[in-house]
Amino acid sequence: MSTLACENLTVRVGTRALLHNISLALGPGELLGIVGTNGAGKTTLLRALVGLTEPSSGRVLLDGRVLSAWATSARARQLAYLPQGHAVHWPLPGREVVALGRLPHGDAQHASGRAAIEQAMQATGTQAFADTTVQQLSGGERSRVLLARVLAGAPAVLLADEPLAALDPAHQLRMMALLRGQAQQGRAIAVVLHDLSLAARFCSRVIVLREGRLLADGAPAAVLDDATLAQAFGIEALRFSHAGETGLFPWRLTSCTLAAPLPKNSIEIHS
């Protein structure tokens, strides 16, 4: 299985820095939750990690090799990206959309490819949409088909940007359980989330971004503490324990204002 890393990653648009010197590594078996306010740099980070946004400085490494040194086909077999939103421009049945995930392998019409497609559809509960044109599906149903497309490619590293958007609560739980199961099988998975309670419950590790900087990185219980939640989001959380698990629920605003600037080079690392 593969490792994806970035070193001193900075992304600028004109004079505005969207990411500031981000360094992190994502390894096999991890389900990494990426959280932060709107505009914190979450999507920019994923796009830079997958090679869709060119860093202004720093570098991205896949298995120790600079991402740009990988052949496109080889990189596509190792690294997959599920972007934000569920727009689909192809008037294709669900099964054919999922089959697109096998393009890097070139075996969609072979037994190995068909088995991977079926397995991905079964895992995401999308078999019922196999013969339905994706434009006829709801946003949540399309999101599950698109996740099945990514899983059909059997990538070693998967980056997903807000995959829970448009999903009902039951499917949000199923999605997070599925992603956690994929990580437990050895994949390296990073997912952008706005639901802190799901991040705390399902992720093995969480990073918090604020104003393009890495504010905290570590185990969910350590990272999503009162001080970090106040600094990053301006909120307090209600914490609870149920059936042997602990969790949190965003409860109320604090007196902390998000307008206060983040001190330069302010990075807290929680272990």
Can you put this structure into words, describing what you see?
This protein has 271 residues and is α/β, with parallel strands linked by helices. It contains nine helices and twelve strands. It has helices at 42-50, 72-78, 94-99, 111-124, 139-152, 169-184, 196-202, 220-223, 226-233; strands at 4-13, 16-26, 31-36, 57-62, 65-66, 79-82, 157-161, 188-192, 205-210, 213-218, 235-242, 245-253. The strands form three sheets. The protein has a six-stranded mixed β-sheet, sandwiched between helices. Strands 2-1-4-5 form a four-stranded antiparallel β-sheet, with helices on one face. It has a two-stranded antiparallel sheet with strand order 11-12. Helix 4 (111-124) runs antiparallel to helix 5 (139-152). The longest helix is centred in the middle third of the chain and has 16 residues, at 169-184. The chain is globular. The protein starts with a strand and ends in an 18-residue tail after the last strand. Mean pLDDT is 92; it is low at 266-271.
Could you outline the blueprint of secondary structure elements for this entry?
Layout: E1 4-13, E2 16-26, E3 31-36, H1 42-50, E4 57-62, E5 65-66, H2 72-78, E6 79-82, H3 94-99, H4 111-124, H5 139-152, E7 157-161, H6 169-184, E8 188-192, H7 196-202, E9 205-210, E10 213-218, H8 220-223, H9 226-233, E11 235-242, E12 245-253
Parallel strand pairs: 3-8, 3-9, 6-7, 7-8
Antiparallel strand pairs: 1-2, 1-4, 4-5, 9-10, 11-12
Query: Roughly how many Å is the radius of gyration?
Result: 19 Å
**From N to C, what is the helix and strand string?**
EEEHEEHEHHHEHEHEEHHEE
Shape: globular
Query: What structural class should be given to the helix and strand makeup?
Result: alpha/beta
- Strand order, main sheet: write it out: 6-7-8-3-9-10
Distance between the termini: 24 Å
So how many helices?
A: 9
Low-confidence spans: pLDDT under 50, at least 5 residues?
Answer: 266-271
Mean pLDDT: 92
